[in-house]
Write a structure and sequence with these properties.
This protein is mainly α and about 190 residues long. It contains 5 helices and 3 strands. The relative contact order is 0.06. This is Putative AP2 protein.
């Protein structure tokens, strides 16, 4: 079969639209795959070549002969819009997730309207927890600062106020960041 002629754009698989933009498409067997609309014919041709590489077309059927690897046209063109069975399955899974999420949001909104006292109790819980965590973090920072300053006194020749078995020495290693620990959730359940 002779190769297809190049269109008025000068590139294989690229047609100019009346709007002045360029539309790229590629054929795979009996299926015509639309690749999108592009501002320039060059971009559309690069998209065609990227799709041609993915479909394992011979280089003779591509627009640019200076491309030697699959990555080159993909780097130069936007990703082609080839839809596979895996893409369809991913889309269906995301749609199901979105439906469940939206239904959950509706149910939660209805619950908040019907039981405002529960919302108030939850808000009070989180406000109390936030205050408690800030106080605990400030306490850890204070204890760590005390242990570090005491260590500096001892290193400079001063006498230790802590005994060798004193647990306050361990305060040097306290984490004072705002991140949550696994035991924080256990504390909340008590």
């Amino acid at each position: 079969m002779p190769p297809r002629r190049r269109g008025s754009s000068g590139y294989r698989g690229v047609r100019e639209r009346p709007s002045g933009f360029y539309y790229a498409e590629i054929r795979s067997g009996d299926v015509r795959l639309g690749l999108g609309t592009f501002e320039t014919s060059h971009e559309a041709a690069r998209a065609y070549d990227a799709a041609a590489w993915r479909l394992r077309k011979p280089r003779a059927q591509m627009n640019f002969q200076d491309v030697y690897t699959r990555e080159q046209p993909q780097d130069l063109a936007p990703p082609p819009r080839l839809i596979t069975d895996q893409d369809r399955e991913d889309h269906r899974r995301r749609q199901r997730y979105l439906l469940v999420f939206e239904e959950d949001e509706r149910a939660m909104a209805q619950l908040r309207r019907r039981h405002p006292e529960d919302v108030a109790a939850e808000n009070a819980f989180w406000a109390e927890r936030t205050v408690r965590r800030h106080e605990e973090r400030d306490d850890r920072r204070r204890r760590k600062a005390l242990a570090i300053s005491h260590c500096e006194v001892v290193n400079n020749g001063g006498t230790s106020l802590f005994g060798s078995d004193d647990e306050r020495w361990d305060d040097i290693w306290l984490d004072t960041s705002d991140t949550e620990d696994d035991h924080d959730e256990e504390d909340d359940r008590k």
